[in-house]
Every structure is written in structure tokens, then in C-alpha cells.
Amino acid sequence: MGNFKINVSDAPIFILTGFPGMEAMEPWLSFPLLLLYAIAIVGNSLILLIVKEEPSLHQPMYYFLSLLSVNDLGVSFSTLPTVLAALCFRAWVIAFNVCLVQMFFIHLFSWTESGILLVMSFDRYVAICNPLHYATVLTNARIVAMGLCTLLRSFALILVFPLLLHRLPFCHPRNILSHAYCLHVDMIKLACTDVSLNSHYGLSIVLFTFGLDSALILLSYVLIFRSVLAIASPGERLKTLNTCVSHVLAVLIFYVPMVSVSIVHRFGAGLPHAVHTFMSLIYLFVPPMLNPIIYSIKTKEIQRRLFKMLFRVRS
């Protein structure tokens, strides 16, 4: 990364890292990372365009999918500036306030994604367990209200992070982060004072958001499966469950890496640093890339509209 001459001041400066210990391979490792960005940005933008242009997709399920795509674009664009700067232009230094802003948005969109997956599970519950009232329960006004509540919940919880970090002194001459972007857990490790308040708050909101959301998602699917089992025809059961496959996969590719990252951070102190780096990359980069692919494969309406767009471009 080169040598840095940094003076400790009231406004600390942080140093981004790409792939510590694998500097010689960084050009090769950067290419697949940038490819993930391209797939995520193009894929989610296409989902938004298709839902907007296809009248048959103007229904609650696809409105929630659009929210998920907007959020995934937010995740990608939150990390993109510093990843490009660090890995492509070798610009490793980031100011404290800039780091705070990036950290805020990364965690904001991560927490919001959990809430969106929860409201999407509610959509599936109403569609399967109470189909006759689907249109009256999930009106446009309620969809907007659910989206706003999800965003405001995340905003209120994450806003405390930068406030708590501002009170911490950073007195090291080289505040070296573990990634090419700023995360709360990385920043508090660099403080030269007691950070128990930050750690306890971070753990409590993880349990309040991810823990509560995942429990409610699980409950919704228990009720869905109970309702499906009451259907007499095996063919109808499979057809009904097939409408949930995309959402179940989206839940798994979000929560499994998130839980794995939490376990590695808390109990994997002896693991190589590369493991921590790649787990965080999977958590932040894989869901935004896979979500549009999953929904494109599993949703015939999206497939048809996508094929129409591709053939129109070719002609």
C-alpha cells in the first residue's frame, strides 16, 4: 500500500485496505469484485425498469421486489466509491467524516434489507393464507407505509452509530481498516478507549432487527406451510409453494452470510485475516448480485419482459 505520513489530530484519518496479505494478487482479485458490482447494478436496474414498464407486474409482490432492488443498489453504491478508489486508483486514505457517512449508509441499507424481506414474507403470507382479501389488505397506501416504516426504523437505529463514534478518541498514528470500506465493528476496534457502549448497542440492535425479523419470517412460513398442507391436490401445493421459492432463496442468501460474518467476528479471532475479508465481501456483495438473477429465473413475467427487451435491442 505504500508508506503514509499521517499526523494525529482532532480529525483522524483512516487507511483503507484491499486484500491484506495478498497485495500481489490484488489486481486479479479486483476484477471479480468489479464484475459483481456490474452484475448487481445492471441486474437491479433491469428489475426496476421491467416492473415499471410491464403493467402485469404492477401488484404488491413486485412493488416489494422493486424496494429490494432499490435497497440492493444502495448497498452497492455505498461501497463502490472507496473500493474503486482503493483497488483501482490506489487511493487508500479516507477522512473520518467521510468514513462515518459511508459506514452509516452501508449499515442503513443492510438493516433495511432485513425489513424488506420481512414485509415480503408478509406479502406471501397474505397471498397464500388469505388470498380473497389480498387486494384489500395490501393496498398501495399500505405498501408505501410499510416501506417507509422499514426505512425509518433502520434510520433511527443506525443514526446512533455515528453519534457514538464521534465521542471516541482515535490516537493511533495509522488507523488501518480491515476492508476497502468503513464498517462500525472495524472503526471501534481502532479507538483507544473503552468501546463497550458501542459494542453493546451494536449487539442489541442486531438482536432487535435481524433476530426479530428472522423469527417473524420463520413464523410466516410456518403458517404458510400449514395452509399449503390443507390443499388437497399435490399439484396445487407445489404450484403454491413455487411462488415462495424466490423469496426463500433471497432470505437465505442474506441471513446465512450475515450470521456467518457475526460468528467469524466474535469467535474467529484465530482465523486468517483473509477469511474475515472474504466473509464480509460475501455478505455485502453476493445478495445484491444474486437477488435479480433469482427473481429473473423464477418469475416468468420478468423473463418474458426481459426477452422482449433483449430482442428489441438486437433488432
What does this entry look like structurally?
It contains twelve helices and three strands, in the order βααβααααβαααααα. It has helices at residues 26-53, 60-89, 96-129, 134-137, 140-158, 160-166, 184-189, 196-229, 234-242, 245-267, 273-298, 300-314, and strands spanning 13-15, 93-95, 175-176. Mean pLDDT is 88; it is low at 1-9. The protein is mostly helical and 315 residues long. Strands 2-1-3 form a three-stranded mixed sheet. The longest helix has 34 residues, at 96-129. Helix content is 75%, strand content 3%. The radius of gyration is 21 Å and the shape is globular. It starts with 12 loop residues before the first strand and ends with a helix.
Concise account of the structure shown:
This protein is 75% helix and 3% strand.
Helix-strand blueprint:
Elements: E1 13-15, H1 26-53, H2 60-89, E2 93-95, H3 96-129, H4 134-137, H5 140-158, H6 160-166, E3 175-176, H7 184-189, H8 196-229, H9 234-242, H10 245-267, H11 273-298, H12 300-314
Parallel strand pairs: 1-3
Antiparallel strand pairs: 1-2
Helix pairs in contact: 1-2, 1-11, 2-3, 2-11, 3-5, 3-8, 3-10, 10-11, 11-12
Give the termini separation.
Answer: 48 Å
Q: Which spans have pLDDT < 50 for at least 5 consecutive residues? A: 1-9
Beta strand count: 3
Give, in order, the helices and strands: EHHEHHHHEHHHHHH
Rounded average pLDDT: 88
Biggest sheet, strands in spatial order?
A: 2-1-3
Mass-distribution shape: globular
Q: Main β-sheet, in a few words?
A: 3 strands, mixed
Structural category is mainly alpha
**Percent of sequence in beta strands:** under 5%
Radius of gyration: 21 Å
